[in-house]
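Handoff note, outgoing to incoming analyst
You'll be picking up this chain. Sequence as last confirmed:
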Amino acid sequence: TEIPKTQNPTATADAPTSAPSTVLADAAQALKARLEKDGPPPHPRLTRALREEIVAFYAARNHAPLWLDPHGVSASGRALVQQLKRADEDGLDPAAYPVSRLDADHRDAAALASLDLELSVAAVMYARDARGGRIDARRISNLIDPTLDLPNAASALQQLASASNAGVALQAFNPPHAGYRALREKLHDVRAAADRVASVTIPQGPVLRVGMSDARVALVRERLKLQPTTDMIYDAAVAEAVTGFQRERGLPANGTLTRQTVAALSGAAVPRLEADIIANMERWRWLPRDLGERHIFVNIPEFQVRVVDNGVVTHQARTIVGKPDTPTPVFSDAMQFLVVNPSWFVPPSILKKEFLPKLAQDPTYAERRGYQVIRRGNQISVRQPPGERNALGRIKFNFPNKYQVYLHDTPTKNLFAHDKRAYSHGCMRV
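Most recent structure output, in case you need it:
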């Protein structure tokens, strides 16, 4: 019996234009040719060292594509692209990680090779930016000394290529800290509410409390989305809404319309607030990814110090930080020892700017203030011996660093009662 041709097991249908193995093999050849001739695609911050690492990484895998499958861009590649497009969720700029359209003809080996390399370069740059490589913090100030863990190209690509979800793995290069995650959520909330927040400028005036009357009450009601009324009484409903706003902004939540509250109500437009949040997200990238199970965290603008043990704040206290013209440096180091009843040796910067000019005018200046002047040849140092007047108080916690700052006690306890506590030469008084 004659078997129809369509059922003949020995019959061969038309072969696909490119077999799966051929697609990837051709792409690998195209990758090799591209890398040997031109190298990876250009990027403004792709250094020569990173370019060489990418070339070596592909060579070690015989130029096999990372983000392709027989049909074009693989699922991993598409997950990677989606995360790159969402870079703004982490305060990064999606335009910094450009990738061509993903619908390259799977029969065009050169186009596929170029797309694979674009994805790799974008992924490497995102991973490094997420770890703090986007900005050279030391160019902002020599008082910023970040602890960065920038991945090299090979380690970043290997980690992403072996992940079950490359997009999730890429986002994980961002800081893991709870403080960073809170800022990330706040950034989302601010952007989501941007269209709903009315821009209202409230002029300064006398402090308002419940029962007082003022023409600005109408503006406060408008800003806080309260039902408008014809009277100008600062009533309990307004005070309650102001209290909620104050609590949200970290102000004293007393329901009183203070100058500080007025400034916050009519202050930062959403773009400025976004910029502030993004700037602080960047600061988190300057800290070690692993802060240690037990660590001490000084929040400089908050004037607070916290001891954290396994994620739990076990101690919290007010602290005094550097003055605006002698700010506390931003860095991380390991606490090594403490000194009880310490002596204080005046740091070279203070000695040069303050002590030596006064000693030149009055040779008894240091002695009258209880300091000891020590001369060794042409070198002069000034020491304040231990005691209740010592600038370091009764105890000094030391983590040797190039800034010569530390945590220490202080005899001027009254300054802790102030809301703004920026009085030191850079050390943190506790």
